[in-house]
Amino acid sequence: MTNKFLLMSQQDTLVQELQNICKKAHWKFELVTTPTGLVVALEKEKISGIWWDMTEVSLDTTIATMTLIRHQVQGPITIFTPRLTERIQRKLYRARVDDVLATPIIPSIFRPLIEQRLWTYHYPQLHSLADQEKAAKDTVMTAGAWQINQESYTVTKNGETIALTPKEFQLLSYLVDHQGQVLSRDQLVNGVWGYDILDTSRIVDIHISHLRDKLEDDSQHPTHLLTVRGFGYKFV
């Protein structure tokens, strides 16, 4: 399978350098030019990693975006900066990025670095067949007509696949992992989004509403995604 990355940059020189590297490595990337564009693109497809150019973007915006998307990216996040300092590195590594590189990049170093990061993320773990079968069973949760497969990131209802956004699936999985427990909105934000936001109630309520619309027989009278008034939500 060809590795595909999301590149956020407005620098033609950097884009060209990465195009040359990708051609030799048989990789692909989708170019977006704004942080918002990257967040939107990330919701639409599965990617191998993120390449982020800080030339036209502030450190604060970079940190906020990395914190927002980190749980969605099951691959390396690489930051490019024309001004590499210890402070920048320290703050970005706290946001759980994988590498912070000075530009211009060095192709002979960059390609093996990314290959190593991809290997680290995707190296297959050695399990016996019995362990694999047990793990497969443990990743599937059945709730009435719903089947939630946390390994393949799919949800079916009455045998029909239900299309969820990555964040909707993460929220549903988090509730499933804590089934029967009442979770506050703050707990859900910390567990799913992984960062502090001002309007905690709104973002959680909107995503719960979307899940109910897609999965419950009657979104106004849900049977699995329940509201516990004054506390939060729980999955039963």
UniProtKB/TrEMBL annotation:
A GO cellular component entry from the record: cytosol
UniProt entry keywords in alphabetical sequence: Activator, DNA-binding, Phosphoprotein, Transcription, Transcription regulation, Two-component regulatory system
Keyword hit for Cell division: no
Biological processes annotated in GO: regulation of DNA-templated transcription
Coiled-coil region: none
GO terms, molecular function: phosphorelay response regulator activity; transcription cis-regulatory region binding
SMART domains registered for this protein in UniProt: Trans_reg_C (SM00862)
Gene3D superfamilies, per database record: Winged helix-like DNA-binding domain superfamily/Winged helix DNA-binding domain
Record-annotated OmpR/PhoB-type domain positions: 138-236
DNA-binding region location: 138-236
Residues in the signal sequence: none
UniProt xrefs under SUPFAM superfamilies: C-terminal effector domain of the bipartite response regulators
One Pfam family per UniProt: Trans_reg_C
Protein name per Swiss-Prot or TrEMBL: Response regulator transcription factor
